Predict the structure.
Amino acid sequence: MINWIAGFIVLLIKSGLVLGILLLLASYLVWVERKLLARLQVRLGPNRAGKFGLLQPIADAIKLLTKEDIVPAAADRPIFLLAPAVVALTALLMFAVVPVGRDLVLFGRSIPMVISDINVALLMVFALSSLGVYGVALGGWASNSKFALIGGIRGAAQMVSYELPLGLSLVPVVMLAHSFSLVDIVNAQAAYPFILVQPLAFAIFVISAMAESKRIPFDLPEAENELGAGFHTEYSGMRFGLFFLGEYVHVQVLGALVSVFFLGGWRGPWLPGPAWLFVKITIVALIMIWVRGTLPRLRYDQLMAMCWKVLVPAALVNIVITGFVILI
Amino acid sequence: MPSENRKNRTKPAQSSEVSLAETLKAFGCGFATTAKHLLRKPITEQYPEEKRQLPPRSRARIVLTRDPEGDERCVACYLCSAVCPVSCISMQSAQREDGRRYAVWFRINFGRCIYCGLCEEACPTSAIQLTPDFENCRRDILTLVFEKQDLLVDHGGKDREYNFYRHAGIATDGAGKGAHFDEDQPVDPTTNLP
Amino acid sequence: MTIYALLFYLLAAVILVSTAIAVTRRNLVHAAIFLVASFFASALLFYLLGAPLLAMLEIIVYVGAIMVLFLFVIMMLKEKPASNRPAARGRKLWTATLGLIYLLAVILLVFATGPRGQTPLTPAVASPAAFGRYLFQGHWLGIEIASLLLLIALIGVLHLGHTAARRTAAGIEEEK
């Protein structure tokens, strides 16, 4: 029983740590994105709140929390209120299976540096990312506004389509690691990261993961210049903040997943595990911001054509080739 | 003609298919451009600290100017008030003892003003003018209602030389009939002498 | 009653209640959401019975794909206010009879498997690898038949879509 309670307390501490760090990083990722994007566009970015605008995330949080929470009169109230939570929750939960380092030995007890090492972790990530669709689609539908509805429909179609190449691109990784568990996948990359043997899978995964997180150039569900703000047009205050938070947590999760599946996770020379993971997440996030500063938004037919005519066939061919190579 | 039509329709699709090398080159070019921007100095002007000299004709706070002699230019003709799309100008006209017209009171509600500049265009005496001073915000909206003493300035604005009563053929105590610039003496209709 | 049994009954209750709500909602989107809740509970039931792979697949396939497609279609169609007219008596009778037969069969099954009215719940864990081996070695024929069926459906849809696209293209041309 004492063992059980100790395990429970450790679990709580780990979850709390991950949650706190994730939210803190998410808010500062917003700052990094705004600063870097501004410099990419020859602007300065936020610089009023604190030195270099470093207090900007806190100011934003205070603003969002104190704003009025408006529910449109024609909205479907319970769904409208719940939808943002779905987006933020699914993004946060995905981090539960990401290993952040070597097992920690404390008081003669070995503590794994992951909240939960389930043997279907990879599938859980997919399940959660497919659940994120509900937040977008239902948020758009419940707003009872044309822009929001179109954004929600686009989001649903886009995310369901891109789930397919996302899943297929990871089949070779699972074939190489012989496991769905992210801990085992990282351990399988002790010798070399999988990006060296699976560059195609890496490219497909990054592209479809960016489409899953609805960022430029795949931000059709929110396309500012056509739909206002797309599925979150009608949201205000912290409910909008949850959508916003979900997006940035999603960027971090994406960075973590890319590093776990292809860049060797927390493995790396000299630095401790969590530091390596942090570095890798940061690099992926910076590249995503760079992409956002560079590429225009895709047209809807281009989006679908790229998914079904390029990424899915490429992923399938990649699986066949990998299988062939493994067999011989 | 249907076959030709079809050909025409598929043409853009064919031309839009570019080779992989071209695509990669285009991507690389775009990413290089934005990366180069990182090294450039931002062009942002830090507004409250760095104030840019605005062009003299930029349209902001409205003033009532004076002629070179220092008299009010406004003759209270109501043209600005009539042309104002948001009806933010109001006044009461009167006549001075020397024959010049003037506004007893003149009021502009800057809470309504859209700074379109039509009043300035309508003004026959160059009295009402827009200035580049745009920092005219108040916490209390009623303090945005400007009275004549708030609007009057002691200079000629953009048109320093013009004096309406020197040109218009209106008889005042200062200048009678025929005493203005480029004005002939009035014709006496009761005589036919040349 | 072990904690597993407790969880089982809890999940069973959630499934029953949410499904019941789902079939009685007039608002299609609400019905879909309650159905999602029901799928969720059944996924957890799979997890409880020691099949984590099945649980995740249930969520990915049913919740993540099929229900999203349902939702997509519901959102695309302009939702008509459902009429409050009760169903015809004949239809009601049929559904009631079928439901009763189903219930009877389930009760009989429960008693047949556990004659003393007891079916002990023993948690066992099947790893994804073991599950895959069982499925693809023991039941490869069934899998192949199912995949063939899906392939046929895919080709059929492609064919239908292709001819429909050509017809609309021809229609546009004639209009010109």
About this structure: Residues 68-327 of chain A form one domain. The CA atoms of residues 205 and 222 of chain A lie 22 Å apart. The radius of gyration of chain A is 20 Å.
